[in-house]
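Renewal narrative, Specific Aim 1. Our central claim is that a sequence can be written position by position from structural information alone. The example that follows is taken directly from our test logs and has not been curated for this report. It begins with the structure tokens describing the chain, in the order in which they were read.
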């Protein structure tokens, strides 16, 4: 990286400033308050590629103000944080709801109207609230706490908008090289870059525009609002015909895009048909069938309860059989997720360390993909479109988009059932990629991660989406990892495979902050 000209020094540097780093900072400040008898000042640097700090993509401006949580608030946030957040909501709901209505469309107004009584009574826990509300809360909370500790002389905070290009170990510290040419020497580095980037399905650009096609590879880049404006512009340019929309992927992002396209009355009324392409051909489930649920038993998992020794594969295979049975009797994930998760969760304690790690790396996310649930507000959109004859769901994998002799674009896909390549005969005009993230073995991994993997500072585990770390969440000495890149590890005897759940984020950020506090404030005997 050339000459090592250090332009700044830091005790702790966060690369990325989303929810994981935000909770780590909050817990760390608690540790400073409790342990810092000497009143030692800790120098903290927070670096983010975006100009927005402490929210990450899901809870910040890039997702907008009118997308809703995929779960109810009580399932999103655990206590005691839930109680603190609800109190803040009660005091701030007026301006939050105004921003929500300003950003959203008809569906947003319907949401406010439907839940008017609950909102008035501060009864938030069962609601699928706009997730930007939580972003505003956590942003203010972190900034207020940092300001308080800065005023007390306990911390010094340096915010940097920019990209870290490389790390170089120097003794027990690291030099961070930034794109603007500056470099920082930091005693500890926290890698908190969030989820891996999305896979580009077609061509390399984020946005591809042609006369008869708008292909969006990332609906949150630069931000959702701008992408929706692009879609409006494309529709206006082609106002002589009603476009067909293809959403590739039936995950949370896919649902969200369907919701937002139907929240915008101008876009909704201009679209001919919505098609979703996903491997299983199923959307996340929203409605619990109470009667069938009572009759459902995960027999295959229950049969393992009497076994003393088990393998990760045995538990996973039994789980898949019980999920298959649920499919056969048309019982969706909303009805079975709690039953099945409890059943396989109770068996994980019988696995030795090696098998538990295998479960975390190889099976946890695979099971999760078949247990996707969502709020009724999302599923209702699909039900309404089906009634209008404007929705179709194809079970298959994206292969290509091909132009025909009429200059229209057709979808080529690998059909899940037959295993054969097929062409969708109806043309597609607007394609939105919601397939999810890449993995650490692919070429489209961010350059920083490539470099630190090549240097041996971070080593991918078998999950291919997470790094190997020790109990201090270190991939190398003084280089810590927090957030989704911790997938495929075991902490405090618990296997983790999905690190986008707030409860797990709060837990592991607390584990990390305690390790950092011990490092800086350990008592000298």
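The sequence written for that structure reads:
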């Amino acid at each position: 990286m050339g000459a090592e000209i250090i332009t700044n020094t830091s005790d702790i540097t966060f690369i990325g400033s989303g929810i994981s780093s935000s909770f780590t900072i909050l817990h760390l400040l608690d540790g400073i308050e409790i342990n810092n008898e000497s009143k030692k000042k800790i120098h903290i640097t927070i670096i983010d590629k975006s100009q927005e700090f402490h929210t990450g993509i899901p809870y910040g401006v890039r997702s907008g103000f009118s997308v809703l949580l995929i779960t109810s608030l009580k399932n999103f946030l655990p206590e005691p944080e839930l109680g603190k957040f609800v109190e803040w909501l009660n005091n701030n709901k007026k301006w939050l709801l105004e921003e929500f209505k300003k950003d959203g469309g008809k569906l947003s107004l319907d949401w406010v109207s439907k839940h008017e009584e609950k909102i008035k009574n501060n009864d938030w826990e069962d609601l699928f609230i706009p997730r930007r509300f939580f972003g505003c809360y956590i942003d203010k909370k972190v900034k207020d706490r940092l300001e308080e500790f800065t005023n007390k002389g306990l911390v010094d905070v340096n915010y940097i908008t920019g990209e870290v290009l490389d790390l170089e170990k120097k003794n027990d510290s690291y030099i961070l090289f930034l794109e603007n040419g500056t470099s920082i020497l930091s005693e500890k580095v926290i890698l908190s870059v969030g989820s891996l980037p999305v896979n580009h399905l077609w061509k390399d650009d984020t946005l591809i525009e042609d006369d008869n096609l708008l292909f969006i590879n990332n609906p949150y880049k630069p931000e959702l609002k701008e992408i929706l404006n692009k879609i409006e512009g494309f529709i206006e340019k082609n106002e002589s015909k009603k476009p067909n929309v293809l959403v590739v992927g039936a995950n949370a992002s896919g649902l969200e895009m369907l919701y937002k396209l139907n929240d915008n009355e101008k876009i909704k009324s201009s679209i001919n048909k919505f098609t979703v392409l996903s491997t299983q051909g199923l959307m996340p489930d929203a409605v619990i069938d109470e009667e069938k649920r009572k009759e459902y038993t995960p027999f295959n998992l229950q049969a393992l309860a009497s076994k003393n020794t088990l393998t990760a594969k045995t538990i996973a295979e039994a789980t898949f059989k019980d999920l298959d049975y649920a499919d056969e009797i048309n019982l969706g994930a909303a009805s079975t997720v709690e039953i099945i998760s409890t059943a396989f969760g109770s068996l994980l304690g019988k696995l030795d360390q090696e098998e538990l790690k295998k479960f975390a790396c190889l099976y946890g996310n695979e099971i999760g993909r078949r247990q996707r649930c969502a709020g009724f507000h999302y599923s209702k959109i699909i039900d309404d479109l089906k009634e209008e004859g404007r929705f179709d769901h194809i079970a298959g994998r994206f292969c290509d988009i091909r132009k025909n002799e009429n200059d229209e674009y057709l979808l080529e896909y690998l059909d899940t059932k037959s295993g054969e390549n097929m062409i969708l005969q109806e043309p597609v005009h607007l394609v939105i990629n919601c397939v999810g993230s890449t993995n650490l073995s692919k070429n489209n991994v961010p350059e920083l991660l490539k470099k630190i993997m090549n240097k041996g500072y971070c080593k991918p585990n078998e999950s291919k989406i997470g790094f190997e770390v020790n109990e201090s969440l270190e991939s190398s000495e003084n280089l810590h990892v927090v957030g989704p890149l911790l997938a495929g590890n075991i902490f405090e005897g618990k296997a983790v495979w999905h690190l986008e759940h707030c409860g797990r984020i709060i837990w592991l950020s607390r584990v990390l902050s305690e390790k950092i506090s011990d490092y800086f404030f350990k008592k000298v005997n």
